[in-house]
């Protein structure tokens, strides 16, 4: 299986993109809803539970590759996970999208929106500037957007108002590219596009990530052959996911079966 984890339901937008590119492979997903949001937690906390979840996916669910479908975990925990689990390929949200961001921008003025944890980590900024030191990066922490998505208010008037408040300062900086640095944000793409206008290109890192996974599997047939095929994807959550029916419908347009169990509850 392809093992995917996130702090909650937002990572299902990543699953959606992976299924588009790799529809034949079975996915096992874990959302740590008992401890969400990761975006406001400290780095050590995020690292600890990212390691526990990765171990669980590998040993209990027989995952053959791991996808960190969480920008905060990607920022804080990906390096430590790669060091601890050297025997397995681990993908994160940030590295695959860097070339695509740089290929899209024309004026080299890039906006990034994300959770407080992702923005505080400067993970996107560090990788982008390493690739091209001449670019200008403008970021905004958007803590209210995740709750709005999980309330199902993707088209609500208040959502447009809050998005405008967050993004207006970035638009005034003259950005021509906006990176959605949180897995919930693609579910707000319509409202975000309305705010930034047609001239600003919106980048969803999950699209780049999906292509990176496909490329890796094609180049590593021995791993590709070990991943279970089928469309009976498994979705696990450590606590009852709030408004699951609404969010899963936004991602998949069909009913998704889930199982609620916390493998770390007694630790």
Would you kindly provide a brief summary of this structure?
With 267 residues, the protein is an alpha/beta fold. The chain is built from twelve helices and ten strands. It has a six-stranded parallel sheet.
Kindly describe this structure.
The protein has 267 residues and is of the alpha/beta class. The protein has 2 domains: 2-93 and 207-260, 3-Layer(aba) Sandwich (Rossmann fold); 95-205, 3-Layer(aba) Sandwich (Rossmann fold), CATH 3.40.50. Helices cover 45% and strands 16% of the residues. It contains 12 helices and 10 strands. It has helices spanning 12-21, 43-59, 71-84, 98-104, 116-121, 123-131, 145-150, 157-172, 189-196, 205-219, 221-224, 244-252; strands at 2-6, 27-31, 65-68, 89-91, 109-114, 136-141, 177-181, 201-203, 234-237, 259-260. It has a 6-stranded parallel β-sheet. Strand 3 (65-68), helix 3 (71-84) and strand 4 (89-91) form a beta-alpha-beta unit. Helix 2 (43-59) crosses helix 3 (71-84), helix 4 packs across helix 6 and helix 8 packs across helix 9. The relative contact order is 0.19.
């Amino acid at each position: 299986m392809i093992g995917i984890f996130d702090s909650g339901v937002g990572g299902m937008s990543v699953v959606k993109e992976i299924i588009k590119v790799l529809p034949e492979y079975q996915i096992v997903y874990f959302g740590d809803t008992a401890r969400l949001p990761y975006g406001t937690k400290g780095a050590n906390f995020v690292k600890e539970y990212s390691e526990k979840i990765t171990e669980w996916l590998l040993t209990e669910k027989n995952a053959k590759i791991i996808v960190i479908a969480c920008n905060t975990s990607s920022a804080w925990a990906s390096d430590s996970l790669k060091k601890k689990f050297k025997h397995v390929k681990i993908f994160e949200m940030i590295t695959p999208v860097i070339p695509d961001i740089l290929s899209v921008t024309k004026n080299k003025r890039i906006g990034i929106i994300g959770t407080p944890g992702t923005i505080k980590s400067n993970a996107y900024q560090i990788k982008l500037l390493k690739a091209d030191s001449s670019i200008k990066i403008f970021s905004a922490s958007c803590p209210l957007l995740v709750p709005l998505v999980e309330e199902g208010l993707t088209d609500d008037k208040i959502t447009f108002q809050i998005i405008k408040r967050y993004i207006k300062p970035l638009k005034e900086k003259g950005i021509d590219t906006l990176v959605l640095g949180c897995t919930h944000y693609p579910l707000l793409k319509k409202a975000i596009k309305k705010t930034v206008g047609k001239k600003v290109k919106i980048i969803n890192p999950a699209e780049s990530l999906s292509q990176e996974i496909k490329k890796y599997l094609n180049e590593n047939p021995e791993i590709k052959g070990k991943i279970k095929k089928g469309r009976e994807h498994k979705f696990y959550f450590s606590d009852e996911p709030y408004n699951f029916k609404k969010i899963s419908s936004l991602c998949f347009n069909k009913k998704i079966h889930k199982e609620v169990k916390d493998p770390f509850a007694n630790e």
